[in-house]
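INFO  loader      accepted 1 record
INFO  loader      residues=401
INFO  predictor   begin
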Amino acid sequence: MGMVTARARGSLFFGCVALLLGACPQGGDGDPSGATAASTGASASASATASASDGATSTSSSGGVETGGSGGGSSGDATSGDATGGATSTGDPPTTGDTATTGEPVDPRLEALATYAPRVWLDKDEEYFPSSVEFAFASMTRFADGEGKFWIRSTDPLESPSDTLPFFGGDLESAPVYAFYADKGGGVVDLVYFFWYPYNRGKSVVDTIWGNHVGDWEHITVRLMKGPGDELTPIQAYLSAHSFGGVYEWVEIERYQDTHPVVYSAWGSHGVWSTPGDHVYMSIGETDPVFDVCITLVCTDLTDVTSAGIAWDTWERVAGFDYFAKEGLGGEVWPVWMSDQFTDPGADPIDVPGGGPIFRWGNEEDCSTLGIDISDLIGVCRLEDGPTGPISKDVWGPELK
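INFO  predictor   done
INFO  writer      dumping tokens
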């Protein structure tokens, strides 16, 4: 597809398209910032802001190892690798807290997961926060698709592909980072950190929202190398954004207290980026190579917006697992949804999420506009299929992903 170089291209087409789409239901469609995510989003925003400013440690019972930490902080707390490489520690080394409270030694795998867990900067205008999976399960139903694979979807239907439901706002206080220790052999250990959001808000194009989906899994990976004495040294990190991502050398990554990578979650879509600002990740439409005008329904760039708004210090609530041993760490139990036996009905009643494997984590796609599927002209549906879960991601092989 052709890349857009001027916003004026295709402007002649916008009037006609707007007339076509103007009658779209306004369940958030005509609002570029998305419909209000009701009381849970407001609660999440308020509690997140308090966490960022006061340094309070979450005490929700959603699971995960709670650890001491800053609970937020200003952007000045983080350090960046300079042109010569490296970052300088700005605080005490993190601890998991278990030895202080129980006197028992901490599992070194869990300790590594807590030590290198990221600080995630949520955008200052974020409305769709992360949560625990259990928080979302309470508002979702499990069902089998035409192939017998089990999905989950919102229990309450969406009247429009861009409608929102209260639980889409998430619950930052309950949100753990789902952290997997993966010893891949040859001295390589990957720490894979998954973030769960109940909802992904799409982009506003031609008076409606495109690319929404219920359920959103994002991740980053920190790659460590074992030394002769089995000590672990970070060397690289991988940040995911949409269907792609990028590998960064450790010295290139902004860090907090030297060990925690600092990343930026895009408003609504939650794509993970290494810096704040605007990030164009896709151009839709096609331009005529001779006349340099848009020749499809619309031509525009899709842009992620990130900022240092609310600091989510994920090491304060780590749900840790050993991927290859298929076991939980620090009291966690290996999740039943971390199984690729997607046709397994699981426990009764089978329509309750949490009792069996999950293939896709959200509603089925809806590509209609006034009853007509025009996704081929846009390149994306208004409501996309829910994403696959961590077990299906291409992160468990030898490559850094």
